[in-house]
Each structure stands twice: as structure tokens, then as C-alpha cells.
Amino acid sequence: xxxxxxxxxxxxxxxIGDVDLARPIAADDLAAIRAAFTxxxxxxxxxxxxxxxxxxxxxxxxxxxxxxxxKARKDHKLRLHENLADVGNLDVENRILxxxxxxxxxxxxxxxxxxxSSFKRVPAYCSMLHARSIPPIGGQxxxxxxxxxxDALPEETKRRIAGxxxxxxxxxxxxxxxxSDFDEGEREAFKPVPQVLVRRLQDSGRMSLYIASHAGxxxxxxxxxxxxxxxxxxxxxxxxxxVYSHRWRVHxxxxxxxxxxxxxxxxxxxxxxxxxxRRATVADVAxxxxxxxxxxxxx
Length: 299
Prior knowledge:
By secondary structure, the protein is of the alpha+beta class. The protein has nine helices and 15 strands. The longest helix is centred in the last third of the chain and has 15 residues, at 223-237.
């Protein structure tokens, strides 16, 4: 039986049925999943019973896997495989993190609108988040369609932002929450990198905004003007008509296109309820500036 694609909206987010991603996938099914991914950008696969190895095996169909940013911190003990991002609220003993635990404070930045790994010179292509345990209330994830947001911009704004390059760093997003606990190795690893504000998607040919809470300065623009522009674009892109809110179920796998979406995790009582979420992230093919044909020097 071929996979079933049930759109959530006409062009953004869809549920996928009749496939077990933990088992070997037929070429036709994988091609259909890729086609749906290109069209909808966010895919929801209910009732997927992965272990860590099978989740990573599926992710490899989409490209090379990223390593968790927590590995940059020498004194951090990983709970999961280094190719899985630990975005829950559990320690290495599977206990709920203490209020002032560094990992908890760091992960609060996931509640800001962002795009995974835009702070890396070669950013993410897609992310695959699997729900092992979820809180009974709260904790949903919101996704914003940056293609539709770009299409809806006034032509004057499109002309203004064409060819602009922003500086992205995970230290920028964390600073907005007052978090600054980075050691020397992390500060070196997380130096700002250039990313275009507008990009063309190679598979669909559509144009998309590419912004995130990781973005700070814009090259050639005064800091105040850059901040105002980024805030204006974020407010525009996260209007309700561009947003899908996902209410998690245990064993959901959600895949999203980091090239053309932003997302944020919503608040829940993380000192009361356990949330075990494991994300495999696939790297893009090249830096965004290179993909757009811009020769941009590192700073």
C-alpha cells in the first residue's frame, strides 16, 4: 500500500500514514515522502516506534547528520547519541532537570522563534523530532511557513531585503534570555556566521525568508536598523495565517524543512512533567550565501 498524505492546510503541513519508518522503506515510498516534504515543509508521522538507531537510520536517507551542540562543551555528559539533539528536560539519569541546571536554561531558548543550526556556516536542511514522552498539557510546537510569509511581503520590502546577509550565532538567541554560560571552546565554535535573509529553495524553486532568533547584525546596516528589520520580519512571518501548531502525541515523528520554516516550543510545567524529545538533524548541502551565489567573507 502506498503512503497516505493528508494535508493540514493546502500548502503547509501534512500528516503521513501507512508507513513504518523504523523498517526498511521502499524507494517509491521514500520518493513520495520527499515530494510531500517539498510541497508541505512540515510532515507529521503518527505512531512511529523508533529506538535511537532506527531513528538515525531513517534520517540518513535525507543526508549527513549533525552532531549535537552539547558536544562542544567538554564537561557536558551526553544522555543520547551524539547525532541526536536532546531537547527534553531530563538529565543523564532520566530525572527532571533542576531549575538552575545549565542544560535546562540553555534549552529555554527553544521557546524563541528559530531555525535549527542557522548558527552553523552550513546550516540544517531538515530536522526530525520524535516524541518518547510528553507532558499532558502544554509543550506543543508551532511552525511558521517562511515561503508564504515571503510571498506576502510588499514588493518594496522584497527589494529592500534582497541580497542582505545577517550574522547568526546561538549566543545571540541565548543572550535574549540572559543566558551567557559559554566556555572558551563554545565561544570559538559559536562565532557568528553569515546567512542570507532571502533564499531560493533548490528543489521547489520557491523563495523563502531565512531568519531566526539567532540572527543579530546585518552586514552593512546599523545595529538598531538591523534589529528593527529582523523584528519586523519575524512579526510578519509569525502571523496566525502562516503558523501551524502541533499538539504532540507519544510516538509522533515530525519532520520540518529548516530552510523555509521557523519553529518554537511552547511553555509547559517542566519542573513537574517529563518531556523526552529526540531530534535528528540533517545538514544542508552548502552555506546559504554560496547557494545564492553571494561571495561573502567570514568576519
